[in-house]
Amino acid sequence: MHPTTTWKDKLFAALIFFTRLPFWRIYQPQKEAYAHVVELWPLTGWLTATLTAATMYGCAQIMPTTTAIILAFVMRLLLTGALHEDGLADFLDGFGAGRNDAQQTLRVMKDSHIGTYGVLGLILYVALLFTTLAQLPITIAALVVLAADPFAKMMAAQITQMLPYARTAEQAKNKVIYRAMSTKGKLLLAIQGLLPLIPLCWYVGLPYECLVLPGIVFYMLYQLMRRKINGYTGDCCGALFLIVELSFVLSFVVFYYQNNPFAT
Fold first, then answer.
1. Residue 264 confidence (pLDDT) above 60
2. What does the alpha-carbon distance between residue 66 and residue 227 come to, in Å, rounded to a whole number?
3. Domain boundaries, the chain
């Protein structure tokens, strides 16, 4: 690590990179710090998840739950600038239209226009996430969001350690390639991703499927990226986060309905 890159640099770099809040007005981190932002990606999830869950729970006290859920995710989109949703759309377009040609896949992913796969994928993602959360009591739905966001970001960050970057630094949108994490960095990443699970575990319980299914989904996507482009991109990271998060929510809803057969 560059000697001038401090923990403060990395924290502010992560907050600036993964949110649209004006943290840059408070502190300008060293450029080198942006190569380490994935180490603190789940920590930015603490911020986005807390504000999303708080918006969901608070709005549900004065309006229908379905409206509250929509407003909560509008809040998250505003916080992140739809960074991850853009990645999901590009990922689906690239891997759907790129066939077996790695370079074509990367070209399609870099294209700023959204295609059929991206549009359909975003519609299905939003529909599944909304309908599953809407079936839960609002307190539990808020706790699921609070847990799923950092956990999924912890999982998605692993791809940067398992595969090489598929482009050069000059071709990257942020002109940075993420660095390998130290043992300390990996431990910190795990703590950030697992701690927010505690409130959900305490309130209603957490089945192992909620952790296993996201792991299986992650591994399948890892294999797809390895075979298709032999690497990852920023769009791959964003897509991984959203798909793993959705698998967490879906598996929790299945668990909840198995244990509460009369829930509506």
1. no
2. 40
3. 7-259
